[in-house]
Please model this.
Amino acid sequence: MEEEQDSGMVDRRAASRMGSGEPTKAGGPTEPGPGADVPEDIAAMTLDELRVALTAERERAETNLKHWQRAAADYQNLKRRSEQERGEATRFAQVALVINLLPVFDDLDRAMATVDAHLAGLVWVQGISAIHRKFAGALQAPGEEGRVIHVVQKGYQLGDRVVRPAMVIVGNGAAPGNQ
Model:
């Protein structure tokens, strides 16, 4: 009996569109409403008939509760998976941005290290130096200088060989809150 009830989900939206007030089972006839198998005149029923009717209604209520609990659990799982996927997409986007910007930062770092002393006072060199500082600020955070503050991408090692180096944000020597 339970297999018959579990075989089709109640389609209330389709039933309301068709104009019948009763929900229908997908692919099946109209499902009886509450108390449909109980005669009109309950006073005329025997005690055994009332017990049978009560047992049937309890089974229907338990089945409905199980369906509702299953649907609620499915919804919670979907919500949790969606949040995880959204978080992973955000992390992957951040990693992709950092991966694309690191070579540019390395080039800028090398260029700033080779600026001659007599060029250092020029306005355009000071502008590039300011860009370098802002770029470094985006890749560094307040905290103990040289210490890892946040891991952007995990690194992996196989034996003694580094398969993928870790990408991290390191402290810039400024106290947290002061930058």
